From TrEMBL:
Name of the protein: (2Fe-2S)-binding protein
PANTHER family attached to this UniProt entry: GLYCEROL 3-PHOSPHATE OXIDASE (PTHR42720:SF1), GLYCEROL-3-PHOSPHATE DEHYDROGENASE (PTHR42720)
Span of domain BFD-like [2Fe-2S]-binding: 6-58
Domain of life: Bacteria
Origin species: Intestinibacter bartlettii
Length: 90
């Protein structure tokens, strides 16, 4: 039952999915993120990143201090090209 716990609420990733990703070779926060999408939701990992790190630490024996922090990227969304530097008609 404990494996059914949602770790990433934004992407609905369970503890079992994270453990499976770790057992498949993901030993970093970014590795788990790539395999499960945990941390890619609206909160960008603000609510789940530490939980993911703790699970990685428990499963691998790597201390949380030794884990490489997740890569942070600026959120991107489409905008009209005219806003950047073209005319307003574009």
């Amino acid at each position: 039952m404990e494996e059914d716990i949602l770790i990433c609420r934004c992407k609905e990733v369970t503890k079992a999915e994270i453990i499976e990703a770790i057992r498949d070779g993901a030993t970093t926060i970014d590795g788990v993120k790539r395999r499960t999408k945990a941390g890619m939701g609206l909160c960008q990992g603000k609510t789940c990143e530490r939980l993911v790190a703790r699970i990685i630490s428990e499963e691998t024996g790597i201390s949380m201090e030794e884990l490489i922090p997740a890569t942070k990227r600026i959120p991107v969304r489409p905008i009209k090209i005219g806003i950047i530097g073209g005319s307003e008609d574009e």
